[in-house]
Design a protein that fits this description.
Largest sheet: 5 strands, antiparallel
Number of strands: 16
Order of helices and strands: HHHEEEEEHEEEEHHHHHEHHEEHEEHHEE
Oligomer: single chain
Strand order of the largest sheet: 2-1-5-4-3
Length: 636
């Protein structure tokens, strides 16, 4: 994924997260505020309905207050002679004011006048709440109330539930004009709270609501009634019908504080709908703003960051892929990218100079390493050649050939008396047997010298192979051939046989009848010659019984050839184990430190490995050469 796509995805993720958080805040914090405001307004609307009903009762109370202070009504109660005429007057007032209840009760609870009927009907209604003869003095409309309140200010009003439905009632004491005492009864007026009145109130306050009497199960116990005005507030229930309407319900209390009516108002959810639209517009504007900001940021990042960085990355990739150190970054700016480009070009210049010097040093080091390897391997061969040459020289010096020449000279001197010499002369009698012994000895000596010459020839041939292998290594070529592991070990031992015999070192080989393997024979023999020579040097100063080298050859399940060279000689310390294969490291007084280094490199070149194990100084060592079995010939 390139940098441009990463930045784009990151910006989109950031803006998406911001939009999601903003939407969540609007949905969880802002929109609930609209809903809460809407519910408060719905509650206030229903409370306005209750207040409108209370104002209607107050208007009725004002009218009752005015009527209760008329002298004619006072005389109607106290002067029986005027009752008949006054009753006709009261009847006409009842009809003109659209009342459903008008009652005049004296101080003893006796009904002076009672009119209770429905609108448009002349039939009087019977009611247990409004009796026709006597009212109990405990009637809620006849209670005197607080004695400290002036009679003219004493008022009782509210709702009562009758057999014919809820009614708004108001009661005032009957006084003389000006509200002068004494009190001579109570004037009570009432108006049914029917659908017509409810509709009229709803039209006035522009809130559609209905009232419904509570059933017996819905009414609380009578002892639950309260009279404190602060406690007469009833809870409001709000129910969501759908996204457009709310249902608001509450209850109205009668004069005694008992719930008698359930009020229900349907309120349209204008606030929440307006809030929802506003939130949509806000979210839409946020998305548009996010898109604009994202586009501007991408354009700025493309021009300021991505383009120069892409150019720098392309140049660096080109240098890494092709190795062309002539490439330079062309960013002419005064900011950090310009500074980076200048430093990058300077770094490439330094790298090109370093590469040139490194090539020269590598060429010289390579020449030195090749020469060191050749000299070391050829040195091992020449050591064996010198041993063989010295052995043959000693044999020739001790040869019986001189005695044979003397015997021949003696025979030549008695050439004419050969028979008498061989029969009569004691020297002649011994001469034939001596010649036979010398001949047998010379024959054995001839065979031994011939073997040593063959071994010398093999060593010289191996020296030629070493030089040839180094030439092939220089050109990257190698020869893979099929060889038997046992023959491979035998050839390596043969290269060092003279040196091994000279130090009385025995080699024990444990090699099963393994099948042929494919590998670079010449290079493997060089490694083995170095390992066996090192093992010989490690044990040559020990007792004769410990001067033995064990070579164990196995073939793993993965067809990997493992050759282990084990000795019980001087061993290797733990600190030297880590640097035993380093170039120039040696523990020998006259060593050069190139043999094991060459062996490790050769094993790696053959895609194998060379490892060492040792328990410590004086406990011997074990070198393990692991080589893959090449299944395909790669002769070049």
């Amino acid at each position: 994924m390139n940098l441009r796509l990463k930045i784009l995805l990151t910006l989109i993720a950031v803006f998406s997260l911001y939009v999601v958080i903003d939407a969540a805040i609007q949905q969880l914090v802002v929109f609930p505020q609209f809903v809460s405001l809407e519910q408060r307004e719905a509650t206030q609307n229903l409370q306005r309905c209750h207040q409108a009903i209370e104002r209607d009762i107050e208007h009725l109370d004002f009218f009752v207050h005015d009527c209760a202070s008329w002298d004619d009504l006072h005389q109607f109660v106290v002067d029986p002679k005027r009752q008949l005429g006054a009753e006709e007057y009261v009847d006409s007032m009842f009809q003109d004011t659209n009342l459903n209840l008008l009652a005049v009760i004296d101080n003893e609870g006796k009904v002076v006048h009672r009119s209770f009927r429905k609108e448009g009907s002349s039939k009087s209604l019977d009611s247990s709440i409004f009796p026709t003869a006597n009212w109990p003095l405990t009637h809620p409309l006849l209670k005197r109330g607080d004695a400290s309140v002036a009679p003219k200010d004493a008022a009782i009003g509210g709702l009562l539930m009758t057999e014919y439905g809820p009614i708004q009632v108001a009661a005032r004491p009957i006084l003389r004009t000006g509200g002068l005492s004494p009190r001579h009864g109570t004037l009570i007026m009432g108006r049914f709270l029917d659908a017509k009145v409810v509709k009229s109130i709803a039209d006035q306050i522009s809130v559609a609501f209905t009232v419904k009497p509570l059933t017996g199960e819905e009414r609380p116990a009578k002892n639950a009634a309260v009279s404190d005005s602060k406690q007469r507030d009833v809870p409001v229930s709000i129910t969501e019908i759908d996204e457009e309407r709310l249902a608001v319900e509450s209850m109205l209390l009668d004069i005694s504080g008992q719930p008698i009516l359930r009020t229900h108002a349907m309120v349209y959810r204008n606030i929440s709908q307006t809030g929802r639209v506003a939130m949509r517009y806000a979210l839409g504007s946020l998305l548009v703003a996010a898109f604009v900001v994202l586009t501007i940021l991408l354009v700025l990042l493309q021009n300021i960051v991505i383009s120069p960085l892409t150019h720098l990355s392309d140049r660096a990739s080109h240098i890494g892929e092709t190795g062309d150190l002539s490439v330079r970054v062309n960013v002419r700016r005064s900011d950090e990218f310009g500074n980076l480009a200048r430093h990058f070009n300077g770094m490439v210049d330094n790298l090109a100079d370093t590469q040139s010097r490194l090539i020269e040093l590598s060429r010289r080091a390579g020449m030195s390493d090749v020469a060191t390897g050749v000299l070391h391997n050829v040195g091992n061969v020449m050591t064996n050649v010198n041993v063989l040459s010295s052995s043959m020289s000693n044999r020739l010096e001790r040869s019986k050939l001189l005695g044979l020449k003397k015997s021949v000279d003696l025979l030549r001197a008695h050439e004419h008396q050969m028979n008498d010499f061989l029969v009569s002369d004691p020297r002649g009698q011994k001469l034939p047997n001596y010649i036979c012994q010398v001949t047998d000895h010379l024959e054995i000596e001839h065979l031994e010298i011939l073997e040593q010459l063959q071994s010398m020839s093999a060593n010289l041939q191996h020296a030629g192979q070493i030089l040839e292998a180094q030439q092939k290594l220089a050109t990257g070529a190698q020869v893979i051939e099929s060889v038997r592991p046992k023959k491979l070990i035998s050839d390596a031992i043969g290269m060092l046989q003279a040196s091994l015999d000279g130090h009385d070192v025995k080699v024990k080989v444990q090699c099963e009848n393994l099948p042929e393997v494919r590998l670079d024979r010449g290079k493997v023999i060089q490694v083995l010659v170095n390992l066996i020579a090192n093992a010989k040097d490690a044990i040559k100063d020990y007792d004769a019984k410990n001067r033995e080298i064990l070579i164990e050859v196995t073939l793993s399940d993965t067809q990997e050839l493992c050759i282990e060279v084990v000795d019980h000689g001087c061993g290797i310390s733990s600190e030297n184990l880590e640097k035993i294969f380093s170039s120039g490291f040696t523990t020998k007084p006259l060593g050069h430190g190139h043999g094991l280094h060459y062996c490790a490199n050769a094993a790696r070149q053959m895609k194998g490995s060379l490892t060492v194990q040792s328990q410590g100084v004086g406990l011997g060592s074990s070198f393990i050469l692991s080589l893959p079995n090449n299944s395909v010939s790669e002769a070049v």
